[in-house]
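User: Is it possible to get a 3D structure for a protein together with its bound compound? The compound here is D-Mannitol-1-phosphate. I've pasted both below.
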Amino acid sequence: MKRLDNSFRKLDKFPTKVIQFGEGNFLRAFIDWQIQQMNKQGLFKGGVKIVQPLPKGMTKNLDQQDDLYTVLLEGVLNGKKYQSHEIIESVNGTVRPYDDYDEYLKLAEDDNIEVIFSNTTEAGIAFDQADKLSDRPQNSYPGKLTALLYHRFELGKRGFHIIPCELINHNGDQLKKIVLQYADLWKLGQKFVDWINNDNKFYSTLVDRIVPGYPRDRAADLEKEWGYLDQMMVKTEPFLIFVLEGSQAINDVLPLKQAGINFVVTNDMQPYRNRKVSILNGPHTTMSPIARLAGIETVGEVMKDKDFYKFINDEMYQEIIPTVALPKKELEDYAEGIKERFENPYVKHQLSAIALNSISKFAARLLPTLKRYVAKNQQLPKRIVLALAAYLKIYRGEADFEPSDTAEVLAAFKKITADENYVHEALSNSEFWGEDLTLIPGLEDLVNKYLTEIDEKGTRAIVAEINADAK
Ligand SMILES: NC(=O)c1ccc[n+]([C@@H]2O[C@H](COP(=O)([O-])OP(=O)(O)OC[C@H]3O[C@@H](n4cnc5c(N)ncnc54)[C@H](O)[C@@H]3O)[C@@H](O)[C@H]2O)c1
Ligand SMILES: O=P(O)(O)OC[C@@H](O)[C@@H](O)[C@H](O)[C@H](O)CO
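Assistant: Yes, that's possible. Here is the predicted structure of the complex:
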């Protein structure tokens, strides 16, 4: 069978208008897919050069198939099963700064390029004190970006629209802050700082699309069905939302809305972020420890289990939604959409994958809801507290599987697992939660009660009891 190559292209190859840091599954199924949708409608007429941010990566695999790959959309849309696939033609080429730094810097010279996207994971937007302007290349993504921007500035050219998609709050502000830190460290001068501030725009974003990536178990069958080889195919759910904080003028640069994409430009993206983190990531982080301790492996299985479904549904409607400051109807519609996405029969979303770095995820995704719930109701949200107890059981090494977290968190837990005041020690460690959780009235007692009950009867029985209480 033939590998994908240029003979599969149906659209014109447009000039490069976008630089993209990161060749990962998410960006290929999110940004490059959206650019394809604009190009198909003749609205953007631009291509993407992908920069591989790390020495090792997948860009060579992309080059082997003339930068083409297939996006497979599979899921449930408005209650109906939906499946389609499309060859994405928006990538014009790839650049590897570790192999050819000059080619990388040359991107700054291209007048057609207007936009920079990135997703270098949450670890990518970081300042590395050791980075130097003379490095070829700099270690960090912001270091590489600053070097590119400085070259552009020296050439007297206009700046860029810089749109990071990393899942950290205020990602645009964070990235700009680090670029300015490098400007200071490398003594690049006030004129460069002014050019960064006035000629470039950094946007904060919220991205949402579940992208399971390469469909390993079905890839060979899909290739047979499509009639070509594709080592870069990527599977995604059909749903997406792309929220950008900034002025509506960005719609002229990126006519995504016009292309029918769920692109929201707003002057305050925090409500969207709170909604997503609390109603989507919150239940993920709740179900992961409780359902795993009951022997369940995927999000889909949780949603198919009568008791667990009710538990998660009640968590959304009774513990989370009343604490989010957005119109109730809007939140309920969103929650219904999330349940449909969780039930996606095509996505086997492993609870163990969601469990990675659970302690910081609990702090970011559930603790704010817990505190808002307590302030509003003067009582504790039982389902969220049960999740906390389940995490403490897992992190004490008492599950059939190991906790997966940073070395620091695992080491800190190791120190206290044998302590007879384990729960107190864990809850009062502000390094874990950003504050002392024993100060929340009644929390330590309820966590202790649930831990005893988990030992006595298991999480499934407790879930059933909480459901019965809720009727
Ligand atoms: N896959 C999803 O469903 C999904 C949905 C929304 C958001 N996200 C977020 O997007 C990010 C990427 O996900 P993915 O599925 O594309 O992963 P991936 O492993 O396919 O790609 C990761 C990309 O990040 C780069 N990278 C990794 N560490 C880096 C570092 N320290 N510095 C610079 N670059 C680095 C890699 O080079 C690669 O391009 C994750 O942080 C994830 O939380 C994923
Ligand atoms: O990717 P993580 O590990 O940060 O979180 C696990 C899931 O909650 C997450 O991937 C969601 O599916 C995603 O945020 C949806 O856009």
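The first strand starts at residue 16 and ends at 21. The radius of gyration is 24 Å.
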